[in-house]
Amino acid sequence: MPFVQPYNEQELLLRIAAGDQEAYRQIFESYWDKVYGIGLRLTKSPELAKDLAQETFIKIWNNRDKLPAVTNFSAFIFTVSRHLVIDHLRKHVFTASNEDYLTAYFSDDAISPQEKTEYKELEKLMHRAIDNLPPQLQQVFRLSRIEGLTHAEIALRMNITRITSKSYMVRALYAIRKYLAQYNNDQLLVMLVAGELVKIYFRAHALPLLSYASL
């Protein structure tokens, strides 16, 4: 369906809030492609993207009483859609039982040239985030996530306690998340949601494991 801006979107939203299904249909037809595209970009699954797009519009209808307060519906539905997709990925896709799917998700065949460029940029961001950490937090992060040491081993290496090592790691992860949150990037969101399992991406590309593990 082509994206056609409604002739009076605010009026349509007011009508939807009042239960007007014809107004709802117009909004649905105007924004379907945009919402579906968000899901397809993040899930790479046409079927799943369609299901999540439908869920987005169901949510819009079920919460129609809030629409009169919406001043920018395009931004509003984008936010609703992206949150639903990310929440679905977190709960149902990026799980240990889905390793085969994740391997395919991050494989070269599944990643477009544009996405490969984006991933390289994300790696640069991640490195900058790590380099921006205070020395002790950075050392704990690197020993844990790059060298694979346990907190007990880190404590012995750095002459600190296990509790201190864990505390440094929590602070390091928080600082990295805060740094990366400055960048509004869908692929970065997917990486952050993937968390520990994003190491599959690095295995698929034969890259050294660091970057996004456990964020």
Number of helices, where a helix is a run of at least 4 consecutive DSSP H or I residues: 11
State Rg: 21 Å
Coarse shape: elongated
Return the structural class.
Answer: mainly alpha
User: Beta-strand percentage?
Assistant: under 5%
Helix coverage percent: 55-70%
- Main beta sheet strand tally, sense and closure: none
Number-wise, the strands total: 0
How do the SSEs run, as a string of H and E? HHHHHHHHHHH
Provide mean pLDDT, rounded. Answer: 77
Distance between the termini: 38 Å
Uncertain stretches? 1-6, 195-215
Q: How is this structure best described in words?
A:
There is one protein chain. The protein is an all-alpha fold. Helix content is 70%, strand content 0%. It contains eleven helices and no strands. Helix 3 (46-62) packs across helix 4. The longest helix has 23 residues, at 21-43. The two termini are 38 Å apart. Mean pLDDT is 77; it is low at 1-6 and 195-215.
Secondary structure elements and pairings:
Layout: H1 9-17, H2 21-43, H3 46-62, H4 73-93, H5 99-105, H6 113-131, H7 135-146, H8 151-158, H9 162-180, H10 186-194, H11 199-204
Helix pairs in contact: 1-2, 2-3, 2-4, 3-4, 6-9, 7-9, 8-9
